[in-house]
Amino acid sequence: MNTRASFGSKLGIIMAAAGSAVGLGNVWRFPTEVGANGGAAFILVYIVCILLLGLPVMLSEFLIGRHTHANTVDAYRQLAPGTWWVFQGYLGVFTAWFILCYYCVVSAWTMKYMVSAFCGQISAISDSAEYFAHFTGSPLEPVIYLLVIFIFTHFIIIRGVQKGIERFSKVMMPLLLLIIAILVVCSFSMPGSRAGMKFLLMPDFTKITSKVVLSALGQAFYSLSLAMGCLCTYASYFTDDAKLVKTAGSVISIDTTVAIMSGFIIFPAVFSVSEVAPDAGPGLVFITLPKVFQMAFSEYPIFVWLFALMFYLLLLIAALTSMISLHEPVTAFLHEHYKIGRQKAAVIVTAVCVSLGILCTLSFGPLADFKPFFGMGFFDFFDFVSAKIFLPVGGIIICLFTGWKLDSSLIWNELTNDGRIYIPKLFFWLFLFIIRFLAPVAIALIFANELGVFA
Length: 455
Ligand code: PHE
Known about the structure:
Layout: H1 10-21, H2 24-36, H3 40-68, H4 72-79, H5 86-118, H6 128-137, H7 141-158, H8 161-188, H9 194-201, H10 210-223, H11 229-235, H12 244-272, H13 288-296, H14 301-337, H15 342-362, H16 378-405, H17 408-415, H18 425-450
Helix pairs in contact: 1-8, 1-11, 1-12, 1-14, 2-10, 2-12, 2-14, 3-4, 3-10, 3-11, 3-12, 3-16, 3-18, 4-5, 5-7, 5-14, 5-15, 5-16, 7-8, 7-14, 7-15, 8-12, 8-14, 9-12, 10-18, 11-14, 12-13, 13-14, 14-15, 15-16, 16-18
The structure holds phenylalanine.
């Protein structure tokens, strides 16, 4: 009898996959990229990238996972036994593992800011850059938050797929959407917010350069959690009646809505406070926003408290559901491939990631000058290797595998649930064309861009 875990409902499937996709990439990285790349024009290019490339690659991962109902390594092994394609399975596990090691660092920061907001400290910060540097540079506090956030992630993982991941996502994702809706309304009602809306809605096409296009493409892949083990592993828990195209459509819609709404929360607020520039970089949500909250509601401290608390809670939920989705592929692999108990596998993953995560977090403090990897510290190294090298390489391999190795009848059967659901033939041919030709070339370009080939 097959006792492998699965998600319990279609809604659970969508919420879990959306939980993976919606993360710091939406609320933290997307607004930063929008700010740095000129606003509305970037958003337009981003949406085209999501539809043209994100959707087909997500579908590929879904169909590989759902067809095999196995962890990523065994999935490739089942589909192409005795070949080198299994390399992609291992790469997927490694990528998730590496990303988790540094993603947890920023996730821990969001928890610290949420706690600070709750204790009313955000409204009292006098120099937010100094506050941020002091916290991230301290040897103990970030490590404690890191431990707490990992204990939480671990707890959800050991409860299993349905009782842990699915149940948590089903509660947290609607809460996240509700917080976003409230914050958007608040942000719009700030005086001077129209400049922010204009920045997000009026594209200046002269701003679209090849660099903008490639950044948008990179952001699209990161934001959708593509090209690694995550969505493939989640799809291995999909039930046989799950509709892959519809699920991918829902996940993409939620992810893109959250990203754009985060822009709508942040920029009207930023523009309503004229001293702050919109292209403040990665410090935007940790350094700029506390200032923005204080200035925007200077007469009503209670609103500073409430707005900051809701915003950092939003960021924390987004980060946690993504951390869970990074933990799961590695745990599932150890559990199924090496036949280790699930609890034990989870303990190994948590222990290794906490150790490496601590080194990453200390690279903002005591280890700041320790740069053993080609001049990079731990945090930058893990970020560089996973997001800039493993991700694009994995993306290209997934496209080539689906497009050239898998039988098109297998793909058709997965997408249509063995003919039970209707999919236009044109959609199918377009999918094959993109996955065979367009997507691998486009990802190769992002890769070259990130390695500085076009600099
Ligand atoms: N998609 C997540 C985000 O937007 C990041 C992530 C990448 C999560 C890969 C899981 C896997 O933050």
